[in-house]
Model the fold of this input.
Amino acid sequence: FEYCATQPRPHRELPADVAADIGRSAAILRGAAKWANHTVIHYAFFSRGSGWSVPKAQADVIRSAFADWKALGIGLEFEEVADLDEAEVRIGFLVGDGSWSYVGTDVLGIPLDERTMSFGWDLTANDYGLTTALHEIGHTLGLPHEHQNPFSGIVWDEEAVYRELGGPPNNWPRETTFHNVLRKLAATDVEGSSWDPDSIMEYAFPSGLIVEPAAYSSGIDPPGTISDVDADWARRWYPGDAPAERVLQPLKSVDVDLDAGEQADFV
Done:
């Protein structure tokens, strides 16, 4: 299996009084990398001469993956643009460099001449190409790796994991393996409490790496498509039916009743 390697995420420091309020800090951290609903996310492909140019056949698979996410009815829009300077998501392709993406709005902190998403193997060779593209776009929407869910209950044979991913085709150093597989996400950073082994964000793993749950000691083989749980999560964060816009009048206040993670739009 060739695996995605997410890029390091910025550490967010909260003021002491906010960090001390568990409910408030958790709401902030969980939503920190999410887009404002109804955002138009522009994406562009690196072209010839860049060293990361994306061949048309590869780009078509990625375009199809964007369409699959949008077909869920989510409130985000995806628009392809020709100019990298106009794109929040800048996509490259380089065989042997691995496939990866920054998570959510972390892409906004990346210089305009650098990639925020990249692919390192032929996406047209088999169905795993579309799976890879769906996975990386999931990261761009704010989804982390599902097997790092702190509520999954996964117990690893850690040295077996290091050996497996340290060899071909990934050849990862131990730090990369820890960051992308063994490290559990903080509970405050996770939306929801259950593990979805069918998630598009779940790696496939061969036998011998998972000790518990015992049912997965022979490996995990997710279907490689957007699961029902993935779709529910995406629609919950990015509901597709836009409420009627409310117009703010000068010098008149408006009461807003919102739960953590909810959004109200005004003009």
